Amino acid sequence: MDVAIAGLGRMGRALARRLLDQGHRVAVWNRSPGPARALGDAGAEVVGDLAGAWAGGRPVVTLLADDAAVEAVCGELVAAAPAGALLVEMSTISAAASERVAARAEAAGVRYLRAPVSGNPSAVTAGDLGIIVSGDRAAFDDALPLLAAIGPKVFHVGDGEQARIMKLALNAIIAGTTQLLAEAITLGEAHGLRRTDMLEVMAGSAVASPFIGYKTAALVGRDYTPTFTTALLAKDLALAVDAAGDDLPLPVTELVRRLVDEAVDEGLGELDLLALLPHLQHRAGRPTDVPVPARGRAGAGVPRAARRRPPGGCRARG
User: Among residues 38, 262, 4, 37, which one has the least CA distance to residue 146?
Assistant: First the structure.
């Protein structure tokens, strides 16, 4: 099949390579040329502008950093798209930004699917990615072969912005799990338990989960190479709190969000979200897995707009 991918961060690159490895014809675009050139060397077609992504009527997949990037890139794509084109937007963004893209797509006759993913680049490579989709059911059915090639676990959850909210809900659970994991390890090690033993017991207990399994080797090796950064987690928790607005209390999410923001303020934002552990170790006055830099100015590493809860929130439309 033919597909174009716009946005070549860690996830976009992994997705492109997976499709190339399966023998699909992949075109790529990125604002900075380096990642596109590397994929071109691997057999992808490099397109020089977003209009070229639509060549031959192929679908376009976008994986971008935030609301602003999605609105800018998808705005250009929609303006250049032929009628009936299929746009699959896989970033983690707010429902409000997604609604604005949807309105522009509808006005231009572009079929628009929200398809945020659950998993990291390793999950893409292993063929274990989850994809949460909402949008027109007929468009979803047309996109299903492509989605299944990207990741085998594909869920259609509604015809509006439901996929955006589902992804934020998942990331709230991941954030809470990571914080509790950090607390359990810190408590256990303070009382003489070995981390390897603790993780082995967790794996054989009722609290076992794929997420803890994914993170066990990194925790044992004190490896904070990011698969998902603490700064990006801060952004997503801010989006989740905003989505709740003033009507839905999220007390645990609010608390974990503050702890994640503190970790970013300490200079841990570009480490894996497991940086919640050295952040807690530092607070407890215990040896830390990695050096914790001197506390920086409030908000360092997280855009101010992402840290602030805007009034009114955004709502998923049923």
Answer: 4
Residues 57 and 15 reside in one and the same domain: yes
Distance between CA 2 and CA 8 in Å, rounded?
17
Measuring CA to CA, which residue among 93, 57, 82, 106 is closest to residue 236?
Answer: 93
164 touches 114 (CB < 8 A) = yes
d(CA 301, CA 311): 23
| β partners of residue 118 | 130
| Cα–Cα distance, 82 to 105 (Å, whole number) | 11
Assigned domain for 106 exists: yes
Residue type at position 31 = R
> Is 313 part of a structural domain of the chain?
no
* Mean pLDDT of all residues belonging to the chain: 92
Which percentage of the chain shows pLDDT scores above 70? Answer: 92
pTM of the model: 0.89
Domain count, the chain: 2
Beta-ladder partners of 132: 155
Tell me which residue has tokens 């990642």. Answer: 35
Q: Which ranges constitute the DSSP H helices of 48-94?
A: 67-80
Q: Looking at residue 296, what is its pLDDT? A: 47
CA distance 163 to 25: 27
